[in-house]
Automatic annotation (TrEMBL), chain A:
Keywords: Heme, Iron, Metal-binding. It comes from the Bacteria. It comes from Botrimarina colliarenosi. GO terms for molecular function: electron transfer activity; heme binding; metal ion binding. Pfam families: Cytochrom_C (PF00034), Cytochrome_CBB3 (PF13442). This is Cytochrome c.
Automatic annotation (TrEMBL), chain B:
InterPro entries: CarboxyPept-like_regulatory, Cupredoxin. This is Rhamnogalacturonan lyase domain-containing protein. It comes from the Bacteria. The lineage of its organism: Bacteria, Pseudomonadati, Planctomycetota, Planctomycetia, Pirellulales.
Length: 387, 249
């Protein structure tokens, strides 16, 4: 545990924040926000919910004092404790060029102190800022169900997400971006752990029994639930989808892609429209569909507690198939980006995969067919952006 | 897991609880008028329009049987679990897109048994399965297409399955590492033939949620859809379990 910070730091932080005109960034935050909806839908009692908060605090610390669980040694391969400490806590600077509280300085206003995508400005953005707690990220190079690589997160930090409120952080030093990237992974793993613990309490423990994370239960949770979560992050590099060497783009390949786009085999046109105009879904009354983050809040016959939480939360917005012509793709428009997006779809969203779900699994399109769809999309949408 | 199961078997044998073939069966019956299933706007695909999909969240047979209720043995931590065989079926469990609906609506599959996604429709579908402990998938299945997936862990709840191209389509997959889960058929009947005698915690699910308040003898399923039943050596026939039509929607 790091030594308590001297009081002087709080005064400095308060001054800095006042100067920046930001609200809340200098405030201390003793605890992360619990995922109330997850716990209410799991039918947890207040006592059970508090026991999960206590277990999470014991494992991961607080927004001011992060911790790494000693039983998850591989987490140190992703997150350096000193880096997390510099990202966490209120904003302060005691040395020229060194900023403490980087996450609250640069990220928390949108992504929230907890990384739940519910910072004070989230409500006014479209799309909403990413909620890290599922460990699911859209713009990445890996197979659909794998976490992003470190390089993927770095890339989003460096370039931002074009067409959204996520800006480029190229003005930060590489070191600061790396610290933030590590802290995002820390928040994601913490959120995934919360989900695993709620599931354990809701569906495995005797009714009403609070979580006591000790003894055999602790060993089992660590080895069977949490270690695999961490391992997936550490091993993400080995789950990267490799686009084939760029094949010769000729009219025949483009024509093949065009046929596939409009075919029942790939079915792109069903959602993105015959002309790539987007927004079309089979059936006018059923245009409404949701991504993973939102679907959880669309509950049929909710209990009073769940209905109350949903009302208080961000307004529910349906997802819409993207316009493919004349719009900036959020996930980048390089050939490799488009290839991976068609091959794996977009994690957490309604956009499905036409490629295999893991290396070696046959998809509904061959890799070459995926490539042809990509060159067709490029042919109807000449590249203008320098990205 | 095996160690725990082993201990449970020894305990049960020592207590003389596992002393007969057991078995559990019953029939869930709807009392009262059930409104006809609503037609779902089928979208622009001709084959979906021709199939005329209807809302299948309540499927009641001609004699009032309630289909698609999952009945499973789900001991809480520390409670005894019935000993399970290792005989995992080799033939795949198949979820088929037919008439712009998933067939069956509720599919039970064993860990180690291949899960196959098939498509008999002339339109493409995508199959979006929100697995929690297995790899989640959302893949395109073209006409006559077939995708196969391996399942490595049992899921704690029925997992929702959807098609995002035809968002009215819905199914549920129940992933088990034992044979103690059944789904009521069109007559509302279910049977856990291999459930040995003993006292077991049962859980009832409907449309992915706990089936709360189902009256079984003098008790009813609780907020989690659970009830503890003693299965005698000769098995237990629950007979008709009645549920009011007004409680279903």
């Amino acid at each position: 545990m790091p030594p308590p910070r001297p009081r002087r730091r709080h005064r400095l932080a308060a001054l800095l924040c006042a100067a920046a005109g930001a609200t809340g960034c200098g405030e201390r935050a003793d605890s992360f926000q619990p995922n109330g909806l997850l716990r209410a839908t799991g039918g947890l009692t207040d006592e059970q919910s508090s026991s999960i908060d206590a277990a999470l605090a014991e494992l991961f610390g607080s927004p001011d004092e992060p911790r790494l669980p000693p039983e998850l040694p591989r987490m140190a391969e992703l997150c350096d404790l000193a880096a997390l400490q510099q990202a966490a806590g209120p904003v302060a600077s005691h040395e020229v060029g060194v900023t403490q509280g980087l996450y609250r300085r640069h990220c928390a206003r949108c992504h929230g102190v907890t990384g739940d995508g519910r910072g004070p400005t989230a409500r006014y953005q479209s799309p909403y800022p990413r909620d890290f707690r599922r460990g699911v990220f859209k713009w990445k190079s890996t197979y659909r169900d794998a976490p992003p690589t470190v390089a993927d997160l770095d890339r989003v930090l460096e370039h931002g997400v074009p067409g959204t409120a996520m800006p480029s952080f190229r003005l930060l030093s590489e070191e600061e971006r790396e610290i933030l990237q590590q802290y995002v992974i820390y928040l994601a793993i913490r959120g995934q752990t919360e989900r695993a613990l709620v599931s354990l309490v809701a569906d495995e423990l005797p009714a009403g029994e609070p979580l006591r994370l000790e003894g055999d239960l602790r060993d089992e949770v660590m080895s069977e639930s949490l270690a695999p979560i961490v391992a997936a992050w550490v091993d993400a590099e080995s789950d990267v989808v490799s686009p084939p060497d760029s094949s010769e783009v000729d009219d025949r390949l483009i024509a093949r892609g065009r046929d596939l786009y409009h075919s029942e085999k790939a079915g792109c046109f069903k959602c993105h429209g015959a002309a790539g105009q987007g927004g079309a879904v089979a059936g006018k009354d059923y245009e409404i569909d949701y991504d993973r983050w939102t679907r959880e809040r669309v509950v049929a016959r909710p209990s009073d507690a769940v209905a109350h939480l949903v009302r208080q939360d961000l307004p529910i917005r349906p997802s819409r198939p993207r316009q493919l012509i004349g719009a900036t793709p959020h996930g980048g428009d390089a050939t490799a980006d488009l290839y991976r997006r068609v091959h794996q779809g977009i994690a957490g969203t309604t956009m499905p995969a036409v490629g295999g779900a893991y290396p070696g699994q046959p998809g509904s399109l061959t890799d070459e067919e995926v490539q042809s769809v990509v060159v067709y999309l490029q042919s109807i949408n000449p590249k203008e952006s320098p990205l | 897991m095996f160690k725990r199961a082993g201990i449970v078997i020894s305990l049960l044998l020592a207590a003389g609880i596992v002393d007969g073939a057991g078995g559990l069966s019953g029939r869930i019956v709807v009392v009262g008028a059930v409104p006809p299933a609503e037609a779902l706007p089928p979208g622009r695909d001709a084959c979906c329009q021709a199939a005329g999909p209807v809302d299948q969240s309540v499927v009641v047979g001609p004699e009032g049987g309630l289909a698609n209720v999952v009945v499973s043995v789900e001991p809480r931590r520390g409670e005894p679990a019935p000993p399970a065989d290792d005989a995992v079926p080799e033939e795949p469990a198949t979820l088929t897109n037919r008439g712009c609906a998933f067939i069956p609506r509720v599919l039970v599959v064993r860990v180690g048994q291949p899960l196959v996604l098939a498509n008999n429709d002339p339109t493409m579908h995508n199959v979006d399965i929100e697995f929690v402990r297995n790899r989640p998938a959302n893949v395109v299945v073209p006409p006559d297409g077939r995708r196969e997936f391996d399942l490595v862990k049992p899921e704690r709840r029925p997992i929702g399955v959807r098609c995002n191209v035809h968002p009215f389509m819905q199914a549920w997959v129940v992933v088990r590492d034992d044979p103690f889960a059944a789904v009521t058929d069109e007559s509302g009947e279910f049977e856990l033939a291999e459930l040995p005698s003993g006292e077991w915690r049962l859980r009832f699910w409907r449309e992915g949620k706990p089936f709360v308040g189902l009256q079984i003898g003098s008790s009813a399923t609780d907020e989690r859809g659970e009830v503890v039943l003693a299965i005698p050596a000769g098995g237990l026939q629950l007979g008709d379990l009645r549920v009011a039509a007004t409680d279903l929607r």
